[in-house]
Design brief:
Layout: H1 2-14, H2 18-33, H3 39-62, H4 82-90, H5 94-112, H6 116-123, H7 128-135, H8 141-168, H9 171-183, H10 195-220, H11 228-235
Helix pairs in contact: 3-5, 3-6, 3-7, 3-10, 3-11, 5-8, 5-9, 5-10, 6-8, 8-10
């Protein structure tokens, strides 16, 4: 039956003028574009785009120098003890500070490789209402959704990973040495900040930054939509 209909359509079109044929094709294309998106398509596309963004973000961050070599992601000396860094550099211990900062970022790079499953789990709970709000939201609406829905659970799961990597790269030991040396300086107020919490928050912050960049790219750049579903859903916003 389908073959017969196609054949009859072709015969009819062959009898048309070039102008009529062009108008007919345009009408067919317009009709196809008017087919409304289904809820399932929107949810599937949003989950797909988030998964791609997370995968790429985690891959970039987990490479050597993913944090340390990226000014936007590089984790600096903890700001609440910036005076420690300044004081130690003044007494000739700048190399020790630089070594610590490098290993701190190495820890974040190693931890980033473990982040993907944590984020993917959050995506599976996306509702239809969430999906449409994200689709019609700001350029980072999906990233905001992840921040909102992962929250404390993400931090709780990521903290032990970061802690382990801080030990693995000796960043914890270097930091202890630095703080110890600072606390021995005369006339200074002793400090003992929470390195693990700081490193965890900064590592997560960097991952969200990369995910937001991927999301914005998919929304703005048609070439970044690598599947027909992504083209159809995000193309509806163009």
């Amino acid at each position: 039956m389908k073959i017969l209909l196609i054949g009859l359509t072709l015969v009819a079109l062959l009898g048309c003028s070039e102008k009529e044929l062009r108008e007919t094709i345009e009408l067919i294309n317009a009709s196809a574009e008017e087919v409304p998106l289904t809820r399932a398509e929107v949810v599937a596309a949003l989950k797909d785009s988030l998964s791609k963004g997370i995968s790429r973000g985690a891959a970039v961050a987990s490479k050597k120098n993913g944090y340390f070599g990226n000014p936007a992601l590089k984790i600096p000396f903890p700001p609440e003890v910036r005076k420690v860094e300044k004081a130690l550099r003044q007494v000739g211990l700048g190399k020790e500070v630089d070594r610590f900062v490098k290993q701190l970022n190495r820890s974040a790079e190693l931890a980033a490789a473990k982040a993907k499953p944590i984020f993917i789990k959050a995506i599976t709970s996306m509702t239809i209402d969430d999906a449409f709000k994200i689709l019609n939201g700001e350029a980072d609406a999906a990233t905001r959704y992840l921040k909102r829905t992962t929250g404390d659970e993400l931090r709780a799961q990521f903290l032990p990973i970061v802690s382990d990597k801080l030990d693995q790269t000796s960043a914890t030991r270097y930091y202890g040495d630095i703080v110890g040396q600072y606390n021995q300086l005369p006339l200074v107020k002793k400090v003992d900040p929470d390195l693990e919490a700081y490193a965890t928050d900064k590592a997560i912050e960097g991952l969200f930054l990369l995910i937001a960049e991927e999301e914005a790219n998919i929304r703005a750049n048609p070439r970044a939509r690598t599947t027909e579903l992504l083209k159809r859903v995000f193309g509806s916003l163009d």
